């Protein structure tokens, strides 16, 4: 089990951007050792998660205002507020500017466009300037105009969108021939280059999907998805089944683990979602987890497991490999 964060005083200075270069280096190094293999760079998405972990940690210290919290108790308590942490991921994107992987987008001449590509082998949250959060699968790419006055984006790959509500500015996603329009809702888009179909699946709210060329459109509600075949130009609305033991990665589930071995936790996740889960090292499978995941999606659950155990994971297709030093 990795050690908890540095002193509260140092973390408060970090959030206020008042710490020294040495203190900033120590905080960043702690997070990278906790969450990522040493050979992977510290990215903007990492910075988003780091800010929210620090804020959650300091908030709980203020609530408790009592004796020092043991290491295990601290991580257990953070696990109990998993929903708060997951919602907050990435909301502080602009508080601390870092060099990014954004590059100029040349396929849209009307204004400056910037792009972000998830180059990691895990699902990472990316926050747009309006507060919209997208959980990007490996290889997914999103481009948007800068400044973000008109909420239009170009997207390819797979990602879960949690769109910030703004009735005066609809949010529009362009994926090839399809256009998805929303005001504020959450949904999954799967538009992977080379695949025969494009899918838009709704979790909350309503989404309008249209074929730009044929001017055909459908309105989706929760538990519905549309499947578009570029060859046939056909939009087919389907029902998305909500079964407790058979969910998509983007569908939320509630799972409780009480001092449960990670081997059993992985088995429950396999049973609940469309995935295969394995361990890179045997020691991690013996770690025990005490946490309550309420209405959490698989990417959020995996992020919290990484936080609790100091592990990381890689995802390839429907296979997930958990990696970590294990527990003593």
Q: How would you describe this structure to a colleague?
A:
With 328 residues, the protein is an alpha+beta fold. The protein folds into three domains: 8-88, no CATH class; 103-239, Jelly Rolls; 253-323, 3-Layer(bab) Sandwich (Phage tail protein beta-alpha-beta fold). The chain has eight helices and 19 strands. The chain has helices at residues 8-15, 21-35, 44-64, 71-80, 82-88, 262-272, 282-285, 298-309; strands at 103-104, 112-117, 124-127, 133-136, 141-146, 152-162, 171-175, 178-182, 186-191, 198-204, 207-211, 216-220, 224-229, 234-239, 253-261, 276-279, 288-296, 312-316, 319-323. Strands 1, 2, 3, 4, 5, 6, 7, 8, 9, 10, 11, 12, 13 and 14 form a 14-stranded mixed β-sheet that branches. Strands 16-19-18 form a three-stranded mixed β-sheet. Strands 15-17 form a two-stranded antiparallel sheet. Helix 1 (8-15) crosses helix 3 and helix 4 (71-80) packs antiparallel against helix 8. The protein starts with 7 loop residues before the first helix and ends in a 5-residue tail after the last strand.
Order of helices and strands: HHHHHEEEEEEEEEEEEEEEHEHEHEE
CATH architecture assignment of the largest domain: Sandwich
Number of strand segments: 19
Percent of residues in helices: 25-40%
* Cα separation of the termini: 7 Å
Report the sheet with the most strands, covering strand number, pairing sense and barrel closure: 14 strands, mixed
CATH topology of the largest domain, by name, is Jelly Rolls
How many helical elements?
8
Overall morphology = globular
Content of β-strand: 25-35%
